[in-house]
Write a structure and sequence with these properties.
The complex is a heterodimer.
Chain A lengths: L1 H13 L5 H19 L1 H23 L1 H10 L1 H7 L4 H30 L4 H28 L6 H21 L4 H27 L1
Helix pairs in contact in A: 1-6, 2-3, 2-6, 3-6, 3-7, 3-8, 6-7, 6-9, 7-8, 7-9
Chain B lengths: L6 H33 L13 H28 L2 H33 L7 H22 L4 H14 L2 H11 L19 H42 L1
Helix pairs in contact in B: 1-7, 2-3, 2-5, 2-7, 3-4, 3-7, 4-5, 4-6
Classes of the chains: A mainly alpha, B mainly alpha.
């Protein structure tokens, strides 16, 4: 069941209208916009921070896709009826979302790092930071996506609700030698996200 | 606690308490202000600008206490389904946001002459700013679910998730070595402030707390009356 949901989430997002590569495209566009605004020199200096912020924005754009469609077409209700822990299914959805939306972003970022003229060591560092920060971003984002299920103006509200929780991630993702902190945040945020998303999903259906 | 959770009982008790509570709040506020603004000595380093602290520190206490109360009320709403707990959490949010704003503004006013900058990105300032954003997010969320039964639970869960920030604020000055001075009241090794400054500080803290409870009672009463009006309107359609 867990792997079925995981596979389904990934498959659906790569099908037509799934928008998996849309997030990566959005990410590239935001990074490029920064380079236009900052100029070449500053871009090279702040490339790691720019990529972090762009990843954060890209994650926010993917949030409405996480539960909204399942909520609309009744899949969520069916999931609630399954004899499997809902928390596990939420975990599958979060991992699936990370695989389908965030991994393309991670894959494209070395390319952007090359364009920003980063050295190989810098590139490795920033890639590691993005890799370790992104699961927490998706997990926290899942909570805010579940919070606004069925609310009329979900998109703006989601961004507003999720921002305060993203600040610590951003701070640790842009300071050096904080990979242990980021791993710790993944360990803390995933279970919290699973439990609260499951609770919110139960609320939003009845 | 559970007996008080009945709205009718709450109204009766709070009606009886309110005049005394508000009188007490006013008296202590006047006493504290007199102490803070005139009687207490100026600091040997900071001069008279230390007096900002008597507003800043109590407001900061309140900003954290109100969020804690919101989280506790949300938890008790989720566990025991007290409708009053939900109302307390929701009407507290704007009050908490107000106290947080006072904290940030007075801190900035104090920081300009002392640190030479209105704002620095230190751990405590940043975490209090995050707390402010959290209040704003909570208010936006509870507005968008106004008068919906399931919105209550959703807001309660958001308040509980956001509670992780409170210990971060409390210990930020100890975990990270930052510009904001460490705690000087509740710390191992006893209080580090002279009583001439401690008395106005504590009386302002007490006055702010009482003020919060007075405002809370007014807002809870308003919310209950609004609920009744809505019910009457709904029934008459």
């Amino acid at each position: 069941m867990f792997f079925a949901i995981l596979a389904q989430t990934i498959k659906l997002s790569f099908r037509k209208g799934g928008g998996a590569l849309g997030a990566a495209a959005f990410y590239v566009i935001v990074v490029t916009l920064f380079t236009f605004a900052l100029g070449a020199e500053a871009t090279a200096k702040y490339a790691a921070a720019i990529m972090c912020v762009s990843l954060l924005f890209a994650t926010i754009t993917t949030l409405p896709l996480l539960f909204e469609r399942d909520h609309e077409d009744g899949t969520l209700e069916q999931l609630l009826l399954q004899p499997v822990l809902l928390e596990l299914l939420v975990l599958a959805k979060i991992i699936g979302q990370w695989c389908s939306h965030i991994v393309p972003i991670l894959l494209v970022s070395p390319l952007l790092a090359l364009m920003a003229d980063m050295s190989v060591v810098q590139m490795q560092d920033s890639f590691l930071m993005l890799l370790l920060a992104s699961p927490t971003l998706v997990a926290i984002g899942a909570i805010s996506a579940a919070l606004t299920l069925g609310s009329k103006r979900g998109g703006l509200l989601q961004a507003l609700v999720v921002m305060p929780f993203y600040v610590p991630v951003l701070i640790f993702a842009t300071t050096s030698n904080s990979s242990a902190f980021l791993v710790g945040m993944i360990c803390a945020s995933l279970p919290i996200a699973c439990y609260s998303c499951a609770a919110l999903a139960r609320v939003s259906v009845d | 606690m559970h007996r008080l959770a009945n709205p009718a009982k709450f109204l009766r008790i709070s009606d009886r308490l309110f005049p005394w509570l508000s009188l007490l709040a006013f008296a202590i506020l006047m006493y504290g202000l007199a102490q803070a603004l005139f009687i207490s000595p100026p600091d040997y380093q900071q001069g008279d600008s230390v007096r900002i602290m008597y507003v800043h520190v109590p407001a900061a206490w309140l900003s954290m206490m109100i969020y804690t109360i919101m989280a506790a009320a949300s938890a008790s709403f989720l566990i025991w389904r007290h409708s009053l707990a939900d109302i307390i959490a929701r009407v507290s949010a704007p009050l908490g946001a107000g106290f947080t704003l006072i904290t940030l503004v007075t801190g900035a006013i104090w920081g300009k002459p002392m640190w030479g900058a209105w704002w620095v990105w230190d751990a405590r300032l940043t975490s209090v700013l995050i707390l402010f954003f959290m209040y704003i997010g909570y208010i936006a969320l509870s507005d968008s679910y106004a008068h919906q039964e399931r919105g209550k639970k959703i807001c309660a869960i958001m308040a509980l998730v956001g509670f992780v920030n409170i210990p971060v604020i409390r210990f930020s000055v100890e975990w990270w070595n930052t510009l904001h001075q460490p705690a000087s009241i509740i710390r191992s090794g006893g209080v580090a402030i002279d009583s001439s400054m401690l008395i106005p500080l504590f009386s302002m803290g007490a006055a702010f707390t009482l003020l919060y409870f007075c405002l809370l009672i007014i807002r809870v009463k308003t919310a209950l009356i609004q609920q009744k009006i809505r019910r009457i309107r709904f029934n008459s359609i």
